[in-house]
Structure formats: C-alpha cells, structure tokens
Amino acid sequence: MVAPDPAAGDDDATGNAHGSRAADRTGARSGNDAHADVSPLLRWVDADECPRSEPYPCPYLPGRMARQRGFRVAGMPGELYHELMDRGFRRSGDVFYAMVCDDCRLCVPIRVPVATFAPSKSQRRALRRNEDVTVQVGPPTFTPEKFALYRRYLAGQHSRGETAGDGSDSTNGGERENEFRASMYGAVVDTVEVTYTLGDRLLATSLLDVCARSVSAVYHFYDPDEGARSLGVFSVLMEIEYTRQLGVPHYYLGYWIEGAKTMQYKANYRPHELLRSGRWQPAS
After folding, report:
1. Are residues 185 and 249 in the same domain?
2. Percent of the chain's residues with pLDDT above 90
C-alpha cells in the first residue's frame, strides 16, 4: 500500500504497510484546533489516511491481535514529533506508528509531569543502590560495546520470557549490527544518549528524543547481570530529573498497557497522565 505524501513526492511502500515519504519539516502550534498552522503531515494524520498494517499477534497480551497505522520518514523536527505523540504516535527508528487494534484500545500513552513527580520509597532505594554510577548525557554514538550490551540485554529478557523494549516497545531480538545502528543511531529526531557507567564499564544506555515540550524515552537496555541495581528504575528517575533540569514539562514513557506484566512498571511513576480520547488526563 502506498500512502499519499503529505509533503511532496511519492516513494515506494515499505514493509508492514508503512508508506515511505519525505520528511515534513514544518512546525505546528500546540493543540488540534490550530488547524491553520497544522503541517501537511499532521493534517494527513488527522484525516486518518495513514496506511494500516494487517493484524498480527499482540506481543504483550496473549490471544489478542494487534494492528498499527503509520508511516516512515527520513527525519523530522522534535516539535513535530511532539505533536504526533500527543496524537498517540510513537517511533521505532524511522517508522512512526500508532496502535489501531480492531477490538482493543489498551495501549495508552503515558507521561510524567516532572514538576510534581515524587519518587516512592522503593524508587529512592534504587537511587541509593546506584550512587556509585556515573551518568552522562551526550550525542548518540554507536560503539561495539553498546551493541554487545544490547545483545546481552535481549538474551536476558528472552530467557525470562519477557518482551524486550521500553519507550519504543520494540520486540525485534534478532538485529544485526548494521540494523542496530540504523534503528537506534539514525538521525531521525533530535535525540540524546544517556550512558550509565561504573568506572570504565558500561552498565546501561538510554536514548531520548528531546524538544521544548517533552523528553521521550526511545529505548533503554542494561547489563542483565546487574539486576540487583534496578537499573531500569534508576534510569527513569535520572531521566525525569534531566527533564526537570532542562525546564521541559513532561517525560513520555511510551505506551502503558493495562494487564501487560512488562508494562506495569510505567504506572509506578506518580503522578502520571494518560492520553484518552485525545486528551491528557490525570490517572486516578
């Protein structure tokens, strides 16, 4: 299936029914009612003209079928991606997608308002357990060490019967090095990398998309031999603090799926908000 290009030109359709197109680089004013200033891409999305995938088995809820609508772009400004996130979209590499399952609406975007966030007792314990860890933020930079850690992380997740991934909800466990570099380190959105090290040893890495209105978790992977450190919890806490220091109001965690064991941790960061019926609402 080939989608009409909302910006210019036509490209061939690519896998999983996502149309390939040139990046739209026009910003948009916050709010869906600002139609006069909405970019061609957002108008196209709002008209629900994105290609849709065929149904496929849901990787999070057994016995259910999932479906996406989406598209592929070479790159876009962070503010435009923010507008897409507020329409329920996420990205995996250069594929931007939203869930449109036929009989299920349990994939709900979740974000944390960082000004009012307060860590729980268990989250504070994770902070204390990692006081010896060095946290650094910089441009995304591929290294063989990071790819090796990523492969070990996936192997550890699969050995526990879990679905690997976090903000991007990626489930591809068989990537080669060139695929890893393209999906994680391609210059698609304004992205930073957070590394967590102990001396010279890499413990964990996060990729974050950053703009003036949001910091969004793309992917996080960690050393599976360091489970006692709760590095996943520690990284979210550090990234919420990083968001606060930037003066950005919200940290986006991707989709929360009620009933999916591997997604329940996202609801532990309180207070948080859920995107329901096109509006962000405080969770009860």
Report:
1. yes
2. 79
